């Protein structure tokens, strides 16, 4: 498998003048495929696991823009500096991926999200869209890559030319063996189509396979109502048969019938596991247990911290050798795992946290582990208030601002002064506030019974300077989501008039949060004052629809709560699961999604993970966008 040298394309004369201020602002997108495309007109690259970034260099300065148009320059200054230093005198637009490399040189999205050191960050560039006011998007990919390599070379500081290969099968095998994300296949003759998803670029993800024991099946629904719905799978860990998850995909009708015929004679009244699992969203009476003698091969994306398969799909059934018994040596033990000398023990994963749907603590751990790369940046370096539900949403709950004594030493804390009481009765004390700075700290909080994540609005280096103004929209009893949406749009309209960009998200079941990110130069008094001015103006012009009345008994309409802007206040962060029936998630939205059809309860854990996979972090702007408030504080004048 050899890299394909960048070569001169046949249509090199089809470039167009771009003009002095032109720039491609949206990247070309790839379609998803299960297998690599066949044919000779294809180049293959490693699928880098990081942030998609368009880099624009003009007049000796560089700007790094995310897929959604957010400015990432300040977050990755070394990349910006290296782009300028490598190309003195040139202006250009490059497409690539910013990623963090681990100790083996492999890209790690988790490391990138959790603040990798500058020397680990690499910009893997793979396409050149403009060069010295010449628009290159009409050229073939091969010609664009030739010019890109001539411009930036193959290695320069944090910059790295993403090599292309002609043997896709060999590259895919190597990527799979090394545990990388997958392969990008690009048609060599393709033009660059900004903002469009095409079949000229195809991404194929690598997946693992493992043998597992069939331990039962669940009752089918819909067209499979008369058959089984999913297989209940197990794997041996330390000599004990442990639950590994359910698999409900990968079967055709013939396979379903064949499996049913093999499983029926093996039925047994009790589960074969050492510890009886609670299956997520499955009633106990809908499970049929079998003797664990049938071995199947399952394809999946990864093992979760809870010791379950993520995205499993059935491959085949085969007869095991008499001594063969699938082992979980590659799976994390359910009761603990050691990384970087930091021990995390997960307990009571089968405890039901949502009785009406059967969602367990283990399901919650799985979700937070999967969402951690986009959630942790919204929590990092912020004092964290633990709101614990040790027995799920039906049990007792309590708040804990001070780090508990049993919290592990590797989980960071910060001394913070907090107060209680009012006026002359106010007392202050210093606490050790927990910090959720990485995935492991996040999962420790979930294991401690935290269902939703509640960070401060400000970070530990400047606790008195919030990162955003919050408009917390809370509907009164009898007020529906349609009215709440209407008020959210009025807030947006007011902020637009003040020249402020804003980002909406559902708060959970019925409310909406609107966040206006700001520079860290303003006090909580100023942010609360601005929110109060906007709220009062909307309430005056739309009486009965919006209100600023804080006393519930006198409240009518949707409360715009400006008082939530204050030192020590917390917010249920983006991507937090809420302790409400159905386990809705506080979900970032596009503004165009806010209409009368919005259903916050539709944003379940699974739905949100799929949104993030397809759309990225829609709340990224709340972290990267920075705005001045002088005009707004002057009333828009």
Task: Please give a structural write-up.
The chain contains 12 helices and 34 strands. The chain is α+β, with helices and mostly antiparallel strands and 637 residues long. The chain has 4 domains: 194 residues, D-amino Acid Aminotransferase, Chain A, domain 1; 111 residues, Nucleic acid-binding proteins (OB fold (Dihydrolipoamide Acetyltransferase, E2P), Beta Barrel), CATH 2.40.50.140; 110 residues, DNA primase, PRIM domain (Alpha-Beta Complex); 166 residues, DNA primase, PRIM domain (Alpha-Beta Complex). The radius of gyration is 27 Å and the shape is globular. About 4% of the residues have low confidence.
Derived structural class: alpha+beta
CATH fold name of the largest domain: D-amino Acid Aminotransferase, Chain A, domain 1
Q: What is the CATH architecture descriptor of the largest domain?
A: 2-Layer Sandwich
Task: List the total number of helices.
Answer: 12
Largest sheet: 8 strands, mixed
Summary?
The protein is built from twelve helices and 34 strands. By secondary structure, the chain is α+β, with helices and mostly antiparallel strands. The protein folds into four domains: 12-205, D-amino Acid Aminotransferase, Chain A, domain 1, CATH 3.30.470; 208-318, OB fold (Dihydrolipoamide Acetyltransferase, E2P), CATH 2.40.50.140; 353-462, DNA primase, PRIM domain (Alpha-Beta Complex); 468-633, DNA primase, PRIM domain, CATH 3.90.920.
């Amino acid at each position: 498998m050899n890299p394909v040298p960048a070569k001169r394309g046949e249509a090199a004369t089809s470039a167009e003048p771009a003009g002095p201020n032109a720039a491609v602002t949206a990247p070309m997108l790839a379609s998803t495929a299960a297998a690599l495309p066949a044919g000779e007109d294809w180049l293959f690259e490693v699928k880098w696991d990081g942030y998609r970034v368009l880099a624009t260099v003009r007049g000796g300065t560089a700007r790094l823009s995310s897929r959604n148009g957010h400015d990432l320059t300040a977050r990755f200054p070394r990349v910006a500096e290296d782009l300028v230093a490598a190309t003195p005198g040139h202006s250009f637009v490059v497409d690539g991926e910013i990623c963090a490399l681990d100790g083996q040189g492999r890209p790690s999205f988790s490391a990138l999200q959790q603040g990798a050191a500058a020397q680990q960050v690499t910009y893997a560039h793979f396409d050149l869209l403009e060069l010295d006011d010449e628009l290159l998007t009409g050229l073939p990919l091969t010609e664009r890559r030739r010019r890109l390599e001539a411009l930036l070379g193959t290695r320069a500081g944090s910059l790295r030319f993403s090599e292309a290969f002609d043997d896709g099968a060999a590259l895919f095998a190597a990527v799979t063996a090394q545990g990388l994300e997958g392969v990008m296949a690009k048609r060599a003759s393709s033009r660059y189509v900004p903002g469009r998803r095409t079949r000229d670029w195809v991404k194929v993800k690598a997946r693992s396979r493992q043998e597992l024991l069939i331990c039962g099946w669940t009752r089918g629904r819909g067209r499979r109502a008369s058959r089984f719905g999913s297989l209940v799978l197990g794997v041996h860990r330390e000599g004990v048969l442990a639950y590994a998850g359910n698999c409900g995909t990968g079967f055709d009708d013939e396979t379903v019938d064949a499996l049913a015929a093999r499983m029926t004679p093996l039925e047994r009244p009790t589960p074969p596991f050492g510890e009886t699992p609670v299956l997520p969203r499955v009633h106990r009476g809908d499970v049929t247990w079998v003797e664990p003698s049938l071995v199947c091969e399952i394809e999946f994306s990864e093992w979760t911290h809870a010791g379950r398969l993520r995205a499993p799909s059935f491959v085949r059934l085969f007869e095991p050798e008499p001594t063969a018994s699938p082992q979980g040596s590659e799976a994390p033990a359910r009761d603990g795992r050691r990384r970087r000398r930091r021990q995390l023990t997960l307990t009571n994963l089968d405890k039901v946290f949502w009785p009406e749907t059967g969602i367990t603590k283990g399901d919650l751990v799985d979700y937070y582990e999967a969402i951690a790369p986009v959630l942790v940046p919204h929590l990092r370096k912020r004092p964290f208030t633990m709101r614990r539900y040790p027995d799920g949403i039906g049990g007792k709950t309590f708040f804990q601002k001070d780090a508990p004594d049993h919290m592990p030493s590797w989980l960071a804390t910060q001394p913070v002064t907090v107060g209680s009481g009012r006026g002359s009765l106010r007392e202050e004390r210093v606490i050790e506030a927990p910090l959720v700075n990485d995935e492991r700290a996040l999962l420790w909080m979930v294991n401690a019974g935290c269902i939703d994540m509640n960070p401060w609005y400000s970070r530990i280096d400047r606790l008195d300077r919030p990162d955003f103004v919050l408009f917390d929209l809370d509907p009164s009893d009898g007020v529906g989501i349609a009215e709440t949406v209407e008020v959210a749009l009025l807030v947006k309209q007011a902020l637009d008039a003040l020249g402020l960009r804003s980002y909406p998200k559902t708060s959970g079941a019925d409310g909406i949060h609107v966040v206006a990110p700001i520079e860290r130069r303003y006090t909580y008094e100023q942010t609360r004052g601005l929110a109060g001015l906007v709220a009062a103006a909307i309430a005056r012009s739309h009486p009965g629809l919006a209100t600023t009345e804080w006393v519930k008994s006198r409240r009518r309409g949707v409360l715009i709560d400006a008082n939530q802007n204050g030192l020590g206040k917390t917010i249920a962060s983006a991507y937090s699961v809420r302790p409400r029936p159905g386990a809705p998630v506080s979900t970032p939205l596009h503004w165009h999604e806010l209409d009368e059809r919005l259903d916050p309860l539709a944003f379940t854990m699974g739905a949100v993970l799929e949104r993030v996979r397809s759309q990225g972090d829609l709340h990224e702007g709340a972290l990267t966008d920075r705005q001045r408030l002088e005009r707004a504080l002057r009333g828009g004048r």
